[in-house]
User: Fold this.
Amino acid sequence: MNKEILELVSKGEMLPLMEEFYTIQGEGYHKGTAAYFVRIGGCDVGCHWCDVKESWNANLHPPTKTASIIENATKYSDTVVVTGGEPLTWNMTNLTEGLKAKGAMVHIETSGAYELTGTWDWICLSPKKMKLPTKEVYEKANELKVIVYNKDDFRFAEEQAAKVNEDCILYLQPEWSKRDKVIPLIVDYVMKHPKWKVSLQTHKYLNIP
Assistant:
């Protein structure tokens, strides 16, 4: 990557775009609704169960003009979900301002491990034990989505729930490869602790991206 492109990426005028696609939101509060997904490459949080490990190395994903991403996204939907990888690795200001200027509602799915840049209509915070969220993301999150891989994740979930704002919606979501084992545990936990809701990766059951 040459110096000029590196400078544009650092400003958020270009972003390492892994993929973009129009689909149905499969998880959390907005599940079942149509949205255009923009998946940004680059993540060093390193969840061993991550189902998009190919997103981790930003160098594998071509720097793409942010203006082009905005143009493509707003052709399809007025809801755009920015995900990764970890999108907050990069400056999201230009992307979100451009999308909102076109009338889009802009959502982010993030671990919250980095500074919150950009202007968001909805923040889905999915914290990871390896790199905890920043104070600002805890305060601004609209939903907290904790992935349950084993029993210790319930303890972690309660720790995270204590840090978010009082209006934040709380979700427990089974890690896909462990779903048969952990779904009964989640169901039991939510019935005993009804402040939580169950989130499922419904797009995988629907066999869509």
